[in-house]
Each structure stands twice: as C-alpha cells, then as structure tokens.
Design a protein that fits this description.
Elements (H helix, E strand, L loop, with lengths): L3 H17 L10 H12 L9 H25 L4 H14 L1 H16 L11 H17 L3 H25 L9 H19 L1 H12 L11 H12 L8 H37 L19
Helix pairs in contact: 1-3, 1-5, 1-11, 3-4, 3-5, 4-7, 5-6, 5-7, 7-8, 7-9, 8-11
The structure holds arginine.
C-alpha cells in the first residue's frame, strides 16, 4: 500500500492544476503540457509537491478500506452484488476522515508558489496552519464533496472487482490468475474514478478556493453552477486523462496484491486447521479465492 502515494502524486499535481486553473488565461493546454511546464519551471521535484500527506495517509487509508469493506460484507451476511456495493460504499465513507484532510494538504501544497514565498513548509505544517486559522472546520474543508465522491465510487470499485473476478473464473491454481486479477483491479480503478469524477473537480476547487485571493464559491452547488456557466460541461472532465492513466496500474497492483496475499493466508489457515483435526474435511470453508472482502 505504500507505493501508491508516488503514483498518486504525479496524477495529483497534474489533475489538480488542470482542475483549478484560471480559464480566462489557462496556464496549461493539457496533461502533457502540464507535466512539461512543471518540470521546466519547478524541476522534476515539482511533480512531487505535496507528497508528504499521501505518504502519511494512503497506507492507513488502504488498510482501513479493505478492513471495513470485509467486515461490513460479513456483517451484511449474504455476499451479493448489492452488499458488495454497500460494503464498499461504507468503506469509502469512513476513510474520508483521513482522505479529506490528506487531499486538502496535498492540494494546497501543489498549488502554492515555489520558493521563499511559499505559504507552507510541508503537509503537516499546512494542516497545523489551517487548524490554527480555521479550526476543525478548516481541516475538513471539502468533506461533503469528498463524501459524495468517495462513497459511491468505492461501492463501484469493489462491485466491479467482484463481478469481473467471478466472470473471469479467477481461482487458485489458474495459470492466468495474476493477469486476470490485474485486469479486474485496473478496470475497477478506472470505473470507480469515472463514476464520480465531476465531484473530484468540485472538491479540488473547493479545497483550493481562496488560495489566490478572495474565495469564489459558496458551496458545492454554487461551485458547479459557476464552473459550468464559465467553462461548459468539459470543466468536469479536467485532469481526467492523468487520473485514469494512474488509476489502472495502481489499482491493478492493489487488488492483485490483496487477493494473492489473502488467498495465501487462507491456504495457510486451512493447512493448520487440517493438521489440527486430521479427520476433518480439508475442503476450504470459504470461497476458494479469497476475495478482498474476506479480511
Ligand atoms: N475516488 C475513487 N475512485 N475511489 C476508489 C478508488 C480509490 C483508490 N485507492 C485510488 O486511489 O485509485
């Protein structure tokens, strides 16, 4: 889970800057131009501004997500598509407690001027300053839009993975198991980001609001209305390319890793059980392939 922040970072700075840039005089023409401009003006290190908060947050977020999703699915009882969606949505909602402040710090650091004029020394300094000036409300700026983005998208995330792994017949011993898990995981990442991407644009704009002058938006609806009126529906696809470019490999690796590790652990547990009770059936009690929800 630790590798994600670096991948998230490259996506993050390009998407955030494309999502919030001034449309009257846009600084970037697109994803590639954005990367080129950052490297030229701020060096390669400029791509990794705000890396601290994802590094601190994503490892905990992923552990929380898979733990909550697995336990919620067990609490719901039946492993059905609806319950897969509901368990994923519950995990998505709960992890917002960490995700929202983490992305607030990341967004602020990615948009601040480089050099001595910069407002924040790092992610922690950013959150401390926001807390000192704006209190808990400031730390949770963008929480509603984060909840509206993450709750349905995590439901789609886990439902898509479950449907695809079952449709492809993913089973231990299948010599194409890992490629199938990677395909299912990557596709789940893409569908989950596509499902609520417009709200990601709104969240970024709300979390960046007021950074370069007086705040522009009075809330989610006002932000959507102003953005649509000024730039048309395309505004809600800003930064989508870099987000999807990152979503496939990161989530392919995440889901494949979790499933292979869980399947191995389940196999070890069954081995121990069968040795402890030699006469007992050795048929695994749970599904042959340990779904992430078996955490
Ligand atoms: N906003 C979402 N699409 N959330 C679901 C995918 C989350 C996943 N950890 C990622 O960063 O890609």
């Amino acid at each position: 889970f630790g590798y994600q922040p670096c991948a998230l970072q490259a996506r993050g700075i390009a998407s955030v800057r494309l999502q919030v840039q001034n449309t009257e005089k846009p600084q970037y023409r697109g994803t590639l131009h954005c990367f080129q401009s950052i490297i030229k003006q701020e060096s390669v290190l400029g791509l990794y501004k705000g890396l601290g908060s994802p590094l601190m947050g994503l490892t905990f977020i992923n552990a929380l997500v898979f733990g909550v999703q697995g336990n919620t699915l067990r609490a719901l009882g039946q492993d059905s598509p609806l319950n897969q969606f509901l368990a994923g949505a519950a995990a998505g909602a709960i992890q917002c407690v960490i995700c929202c402040p983490m992305e607030l710090a990341k967004t602020r650091l990615q948009l601040q001027a480089a050099g001595p004029a910069r407002a924040y020394k790092g992610s922690l300094d950013c959150l401390v300053q926001i807390y000192r000036h704006e209190g808990l409300r400031g730390i949770n700026r963008g929480m509603v839009s984060t909840l509206l983005r993450e709750t349905p998208s995590f439901g789609v995330y886990f439902l898509t993975y479950d449907v695809l792994t079952r449709a492809m017949g993913c089973e231990p011993g299948d010599r194409l198991l890992v490629p199938k898990l990677l395909l299912a995981g990557g596709t789940s990442g893409i569908t989950s980001w596509l499902s609520t991407y417009p709200m990601d644009v709104v969240k970024s704009r709300l979390q960046a609001d007021g950074l370069q002058g007086t705040p522009r938006y009075r809330g989610i609806v006002d932000c959507m209305r102003q953005s649509y009126q000024a730039e048309g529906w395309q505004v809600f696809t800003r930064g989508l390319a870099s987000t999807l470019l990152r979503a496939f490999p990161v989530n392919a690796a995440t889901f494949a890793t979790v499933t292979v590790v869980l399947t191995y652990i389940r196999g070890e547990e069954d081995q121990v059980d069968s040795e402890a009770a030699p006469g007992a059936s050795t048929t695994p009690a749970g599904p042959a392939l340990a779904q992430p929800s078996s955490l």
